[in-house]
Design goal:
Strands 2-1-11-10-12-13-14-15-16 form a 9-stranded mixed sheet, sandwiched between helices. The chain has a 7-stranded mixed sheet with strand order 7-6-5-3-4-8-9, sandwiched between helices. It has a 4-stranded antiparallel sheet with strand order 17-18-19-20. It is globular and about 70 Å long. The chain is built from 17 helices and 25 strands. The chain is α/β, with parallel strands linked by helices. Helix 1 packs antiparallel against helix 2, helix 2 packs across helix 3 and helix 10 packs across helix 11. The structure holds adenosine-5'-diphosphate. Adenosine-5'-diphosphate binds next to strand 14, strand 19 and strand 20.
Length: about 550
């Protein structure tokens, strides 16, 4: 017997309709590329999104067609999120930090029909405009007064002009909730990038889970500033979650340095933020150097790569900002686990509590996970045994866009991460499978070694890689950026490991560098370091 309840498709446009009706006066504040601060309400957002949807229809964008964006976090980008997906077309967020050749490859693969971009990216678009095969219209996300003059881009259109030509009288169409809504390519550190094609259903379900108290913990009483870019896995879903719960949104545009972020946090009363560790490093350094505090910030979500415990305690102990460590990936929309404490942890002392918080956390409902050994057999949840992490659930990739074969193994998606899971269900990433260090056949977790280095007061950044070794095949090599104006020797840093790990895990050597190579999403490019330093220990021997 079937249930007797109404059946409504889960559509992204419903989030916007809800936000307009129930939180119409809630604000969306954006620092614009043009330099000033822009304010609008959810009511404006809804109206302008409908106008933009009409404008897209006028450009000939139809159901299922792709619209690309090259844009920072801002209100116009948010309008495109809703306008394009709301019509049943597909929003394809491109990562502007990628190389031009890669952008062309991705735009061609996605068959983008329209490309909308912020003024900042004019030179980039000029460089690719004649090379992308399917783009018919280029839209600058600005007003008439700021329109650039260029002869390198055909059919250059002005966002505000397109919008002004429409009245916004549009009813969002209803369609199957499994319709594609947005497309995001993995950064492709190995091989070609792969497209992950989200659906309306996966996006709305992911938003429910993300908003939960043990998820990203977002409510109508929050002011959310996503530092994580809208071109990287939909800013971890926050543009959708904010409409679902009615939270005020603050967009930083291109201004992601410590000073700009701190000013915006304070001026707009930001309570919740989210980003990768490298961004927070800049913010913490700025706050420390200037003796500043955070008067409204209560929580920050840190993920994308492991959050060093030293960073967690800086936020929590020095600034009273709670850190929520989270793990996910493009293929998981991205939220997989979040490290909220259970009631049994509340009585723990600070050091033991930190041990729990350093983990990547528990699966949110909707994500099922397991770890397996090399033979594919499931491994125990004892917090010790590590194996490859596999996940499944309604917002996890089933196949890649235009992919011929399924990436799944018996219905599970292999993440490429190596992890342990403890008896309470807390997962901890020890490595990515391509980054593990195999010394004499035994695995050494590079993230542990990095976290210890990062806890040294003279270390600004650290990465640990596998270097070839004559006897042990591979041994850990530490690549370190020192803090400005402090002395630190190899011997001092290696002595810092004493008593913190098994002796044989201690890195064999330390290389000091001025900076670490970062990829398009702010993560350390370890393969670059391996290319450069793989033979370092052989040479030293
Ligand atoms: P890529 O970096 O391959 O482009 P994503 O941006 O989707 O892909 O990143 C996903 C990967 O980032 C995960 O598989 C994992 O290795 C890493 N990652 C994400 N969050 C964390 C975290 N909290 N701790 C450690 N690693 C993380």
């Amino acid at each position: 017997m079937q249930g007797a309840m109404q059946s409504h498709p889960l559509l992204i446009s419903n989030l916007l309709v809800h936000a307009e009706r129930h939180h119409g006066d809630q604000e969306v504040v954006s620092r614009r590329v043009e330099g000033d601060l822009h304010r609008q309400t959810f009511r404006d957002l809804a109206q302008r999104s409908r106008q933009m949807a009409q404008a897209m229809q006028a450009l000939g964008v139809g159901f299922g067609q792709r619209v690309g964006t090259l844009a920072w976090n801002g209100y116009r980008h948010m309008e495109l999120y809703y306008a394009v997906s709301g019509l049943g077309a597909v929003l394809h967020t491109l990562n502007p930090r990628l190389h031009a050749d890669q952008l062309v490859w991705i735009a061609d693969h996605a068959e983008d029909e329209v490309l909308c971009f912020d003024l900042t990216f004019l030179p980039l678009v000029e460089a690719v405009a004649n090379r992308v095969k399917t783009v018919k219209h280029f839209v600058v996300m600005t007003d008439r007064a700021h329109m650039p003059v260029t002869d390198k881009i055909p059919n250059l259109l002005c966002y505000e002009d397109l919008l002004a030509a429409q009245d916004g009288r549009l009813s969002w169409p209803s369609f199957d909730e499994n319709t594609a809504s947005s497309l995001c390519y993995t950064s492709g550190t190995t091989g070609h990038p792969k497209g992950v094609l989200y659906s309306h259903r996966s996006t709305v379900l992911h938003s429910y889970a993300a908003a939960l108290p043990d998820g990203l913990q977002c409510s109508a009483a929050d002011t959310v500033l996503p530092v994580v870019p809208m071109f990287h896995v939909n800013a971890w879903g926050l543009p959708y979650v904010a409409c679902m719960v009615g939270a005020k949104l603050v967009f930083p545009g291109p201004f992601l340095d410590g000073k700009s972020l701190h000013e915006l946090f304070e001026a707009e009363g930001v309570t919740l933020s989210a980003g990768v560790p490298t961004v927070w490093q800049g913010l913490l350094a700025y706050a420390e150097a200037n003796g500043l505090h955070f008067s409204t910030m209560r929580r920050t979500i840190i993920g994308g790569s492991a959050c060093p415990p030293a960073m967690m305690s800086a936020f929590q102990d020095r600034y009273q900002v709670a850190v929520l460590h989270a793990w996910g990936m493009t293929e998981i929309s991205p939220l997989g686990t979040a490290c909220a404490l259970k009631s049994k942890h509340l009585a723990l002392g600070p050091a033991e509590r930190m041990q729990v918080q350093a983990k990547q956390g528990r699966a949110v409902f909707g994500v099922d996970m397991k770890i397996v050994g090399e033979d594919g057999a499931e491994l125990p949840w004892d917090g010790q045994t590590s194996g490859e992490l596999l996940v499944r659930g309604p917002w996890i990739v089933g196949r890649y866009f235009k992919g011929e074969s399924s990436p799944l193994v018996d219905g599970w998606f292999p993440t490429g991460d190596v992890a342990t899971i403890d008896a309470d269900g807390y997962m901890q990433i020890t490595d990515r499978s391509k980054d593990v260090i195999k010394s004499g056949g035994e695995w050494i977790g590079s993230i542990d070694l990095e976290n210890i280095a990062m806890a040294h007061p003279a270390v600004a950044a650290a990465a640990c890689i596998a270097a070839r070794h004559a006897k042990w095949d591979e041994r850990p090599l530490l690549v370190v950026v020192r803090k400005a104006d402090v002395a630190l020797t190899r011997e001092e840093l290696l002595a810092f490991y004493d008593g913190k790990i098994a002796k044989w895990w201690t890195p064999d050597d330390v290389v000091f560098v001025d900076q670490l190579p970062l990829g398009a999403t702010g993560k350390v490019l370890k393969h670059r370091l391996r290319d450069q330093y793989a033979d370092h220990l052989l040479a030293a021997a």
